[in-house]
Amino acid sequence: MNRKKILTIAVFAIMSTSCYSQVGINTRDPQQALHISGTGTGTSQATMRIEGLNSQNNPAHEDASSSKRVFSDSNGSFVIARNDQVNKSYLITPLPNTSVSGGTEQLVTTQSFILEYPSIVHIEARVGMSITDHISTEADLKDGQARLFGSYYKFSSAPSSVLSNTSFGQTIISHSTNTEEAQLDGVFYIEPRKDLSLPKGSYTIALYGYSQDNKLNFAVNSLNQTSQQMAISITPLSY
């Protein structure tokens, strides 16, 4: 075998070994397929420059002084959060007049929304509950026992990591009775609210009215007041 053939075989052997070895930049002992080593100076942090992520080449930056976090998408590409992270809000007013039979829960209203980013979601409502039965006609309601009625939320649809059809944000009134008449006549106002940290995805939230006792009926917003409403505020989390 001549010298030229020996040299060619040696070059291919080195190339073959390099294709399957770890690559180190600024280190002679790479710990991963690609290992970039570096330290900062003074109070600065170590820097790795990627030209596609700088303010000149990437519109995710507002200006040359912008500083944002880089994260990896599902393809393993380094990207910056876009500029379209905006707060959103929804308002349902007035709440529909809804009858709630004793001993049941009743859907009052729903609202669907889409989170393009992980977000903090604030839900609140002002719910007026009118007791529709005069309790003097119901002897069972005059036994000195406490009755519960109120309102809460459920997700009727949500990403798989979020519980659906499970109540949260409960605001419940406990009212006891005695032998006097009409103790529960009137309108009772409550304000169920909840702050949630939610992942991106599609959601439908539902507001419910609830009565524990099968003799205690009430109606949500029987007065058709515009102040009785449900509001949802969405604030995307910053990257």
Structural class: mainly beta
Give the SSE string.
HEEEEEEEEEEEEEEEE
**Unreliable sequence segments:** none
**Gap between N and C termini, in Å?**
61 Å
Number of strands: 16
Tally the helices: what do you get?
1
In the sheet with the most strands, the strands line up as 5-16-8-13
For the largest beta-sheet, the strand count, sense and barrel status come to: 4 strands, antiparallel
Percent strand equals 35-45%
Quote the average pLDDT: 83
Topology:
Layout: H1 3-19, E1 23-25, E2 34-36, E3 70-72, E4 78-80, E5 88-92, E6 98-100, E7 105-115, E8 119-125, E9 127-131, E10 146-157, E11 168-176, E12 186-190, E13 193-198, E14 201-211, E15 218-220, E16 230-236
Parallel strand pairs: 1-2
Antiparallel strand pairs: 3-4, 5-16, 6-15, 7-14, 8-13, 8-16, 9-12, 9-15, 10-11, 10-14
